[in-house]
Amino acid sequence: MAVVWSDRMFGRASRTKGTPVTDTAARQVSVRGAWVEARELVWIHRSRLAVGLTLMLVNRLAGLVLPASSKYLIDDVIANQRSELLLTLALAIGLAAAVQAVTGFALSQVLGVAAQRAITEMRKRVQVHVTRLPVGFFDSTKTGVLISRIMTDAEGIRNLVGTGLVQLSGGLVTAVIALGVLFYLSWQLTSVTLLILLAFGGTMATAFKRLRPLFRERGKMNADVTGRLNETLGGIRIVKAYTVERREQRVFANGTHRLLRNVAKTITGVSAISAVSTLVIGAIGVLMVLVGGQAILAGTMTLGDFIAYIFFTGLVAAPLVQIASIGTQITEAFAGLDRIREIRQMATEDEEDAVRRPLPEVRGDVTCEGVCFEYVEGVPVLRDVSFEAKAGTTTALVGSSGSGKSTLISLVLAFNRPKSGRVTVDGLDLESLRLRDYRKHLGVVLQENFLFDGTVADNIRFARPDATPDEIRRVSRVAHCDEFISEFKDGYDTVVGERGVKLSGGQRQRVAIARAILADPRILILDEATSSLDSESEGFIQDGLRSLRHGRTTFVIAHRLSTIQSADQILVIERGEIVERGSHVELLALDGRYRQLHEKQYRLERDRFINPGEDFTPDLPPTPAAPARNPTSL
Fold first, then answer.
1. Is the same domain home to 140 and 112?
2. DSSP letter (8 states) at residue 619
3. In terms of C-beta density within 10 A (0-12 exposed, 13-18 middle, 19 or more buried), how is residue 9 classed?
């Protein structure tokens, strides 16, 4: 069945929605869509294609000189001894060859550049569209699949706006002209030949219709194999750590063998078309020998007419061979356009922003009102979550792993939408605001710190490309990056490698913190921002983070409860619900879930750092001091 994208997968209703349709109907829609895409491409590049077609026609017409001159060479120069025509024929043939050479070179330049420009533009358009899709789409799609869509699928359009389509068009024009000459020379023989060619054309049309799904499936297989290979190489340390190289080799081998079987089927189909075309040409040759030979013996056709007929028959048959090769390439191009169109049909966040209200300034008041959320239908992750984070305050989220803390942060970041309830900023529902405007006021340090393959300075200035070296050094001192950067030979120009692999986990985390500081956000998200730091470095950075949090609305997820004691409010989340809320002292006094987590962490610290048997008593307020309050009230 055709896939019907859900609203929750991409954060909004997709363009592809409605009742499920059959595979046949889906293929028909896909074919029509590919034709629309192809027409748009041809129309955009119509000027260059028109020039190319003109050059191709001149080239093909010049190619008619040699077969046409053969009749005069045999019947007039040789048979009638008219030697004065020999130089004229030679000059005509030489001039035609020169015209073919010049137009052929110009054709490759004009259409070659047009094809590469079209590929580049298509890649840019698809990349722009993909990067503007909702975050939920990337959660369910492999990176390798998207790379294949952007890079590989776009490559096939060279045969639509390059030499392929024009060569095919030029060959067909030449074939029509040659067919007219053939009817003039012998309408009886040409009529039989034309019937054979028409039958062959119908066979080829059917063959290409069956080949197209194979090419489409090949693109999907190639994307899957590329995606898995990308994951294997990206996680090569995990692969080697668990010695699963052989398993990854088997997975890759299975994927490549599936791809091989698909390629083998397409090769078989294309080879069969080529073989049939050879048989057709052979059948026409047999027909010409029998019928043409009898015509010469009967005196109804001269030897020159017969030789010219053979040459012009070749001009008619040549496009058949071209169709077998160029037609296959164009079929593959259409399959690529199918896959590209699937991506481009998906709704982007920018399309929603076009009808949303602008948000020029943000104070930073964030509120959740009865928020419920689920990734899988019927499996709630958040249940009726309500809280208020006033501008300039710090809200900490604690709880067991999988309790919903990161999901709640993703709603604040507008990466996902609540199933019910709403998230507001300064009293405005996030769903009514332009996401680009809102996210300009966000600073993020996530648990998995992603650095790009560039210099340390490039990664720090990622949110502000115009930042000065002095600003970069200033935030680096706050994040304590300058301590290790100064030890590098190239300093801030040190290349960190893909995903920052040349830096330690703690160094990557400090660079990510410096990046967030430089962004100067109104709303700051710290998701385990100091998880990869040792205690000494964490102490230094906490001082910097406290100064960074001043005047900003900050959300902190932390398993080290010692890092959130200064938070204005702490939300304890379990199984998607807020079970406790208050300050550090208030929650300890409640003698509830927060106190349990706090005591457990102290015991772990004692077991790690205190000598066995040494008395260790955490400094906790007594339980009777608990104030009378509703733990779930604001």
1. yes
2. -
3. middle
Question: What angle (nearest 5°) sits at the alpha carbon of residue 261, between those of residues 257 and 266?
Answer: 145
| C-beta atoms surrounding 305 within 10 Å | 20
CATH classification at residue 435:
3.40.50.300
Same domain, 175 and 256: yes
Is residue 614 pLDDT above 50, yes or no? no
Cβ proximity of 1 and 23 under 8 Å: yes
> Is the same domain home to 383 and 330?
no
Distance CA 179, CA 194 (A): 9
Structure tokens at 244: 């699963």
Query: Does the pLDDT at position 98 exceed 80?
Result: yes
Residue 462 lies in a domain: no
Do 32 and 91 belong to one domain? yes
| Other CB atoms within 10 Å distance of the CB of residue 42 | 14
Inside any domain, residue 3? no
Could you tell me if 424 and 439 are in contact, meaning their C-beta atoms sit under 8 angstroms apart?
A: no
Last residue within a domain, chosen from 347, 381, 400:
347
- Enumerate the β-bridge partners of residue 398: 572
What pLDDT score does 375 carry? 86
Amino acid at 529: A
- Mean pLDDT, to the nearest integer, of 417-438? 88
Same domain as 361, residue 338: no
Backbone CA torsion sign across 526, 532, 534, 536: negative
Mean pLDDT score, 522-544 = 69
Which H or E run contains 205? Answer: helix 187-234
**Residue among 149, 152, 114, 113 nearest 128 (CA):** 149
Separation of alpha carbons 373 and 395, rounded Å:
20
Other C-beta atoms closer than 10 Å to the C-beta of 195 total 10
Residue 187's domain spans which residues? 20-347
CATH of the domain at 38: 1.20.1560.10
Strands 428-429 and 394-398 turn out to be unpaired
Q: What is the rounded CA–CA span in Å between residue 403 and residue 611?
A: 33
The partner residues of 201 in beta bridges, in order of sequence, read none
Q: Which amino acid is located at 632 in the chain?
A: T
Average pLDDT over residues 140-164: 72
Q: Which structure tokens are listed for 404?
A: 């919903």
Question: Minimal CA–CA distance to 229: which of 249, 259, 244?
Answer: 249
DSSP H helical segments within 64-186, as ranges? 65-72, 84-131, 135-139, 143-147, 153-155, 158-161, 163-185
Alpha helices in 535-628 (DSSP H): 535-549, 584-590, 593-609
Same domain, 317 and 362: no
Query: Is residue 520 included in any domain, yes or no?
Result: no
pLDDT score of 9 more than 50: no
Of the residues 296, 319, 347, the one at which a domain ends: 347
Asked if residues 169 and 322 have their Cβ atoms less than 8 Å apart, the reply is no
**What pLDDT sits at residue 607?**
60
Claim to verify: residue 199 and residue 78 sit in the same structural domain: yes
Contact 467, 459 (CB under 8 A): no
Whole-prediction pTM? 0.62
Considering only CA atoms, which of 357, 391, 360 is closest in space to residue 523? 391
Residue 526 has a pLDDT of 85
Residue 543: which residues within 8 A CB-CB, separation 6 or more?
none
Of 317 and 621, the structure prediction assigns the larger pLDDT to 317
Domain total in the chain: 2
In a domain, 549, yes or no: no
Residues 316 and 435 in one domain: no
Would you place residue 37 in the very low, low, confident or very high pLDDT band (cuts 50, 70, 90)?
A: low
pLDDT computed for residue 367 by the predictor: 92
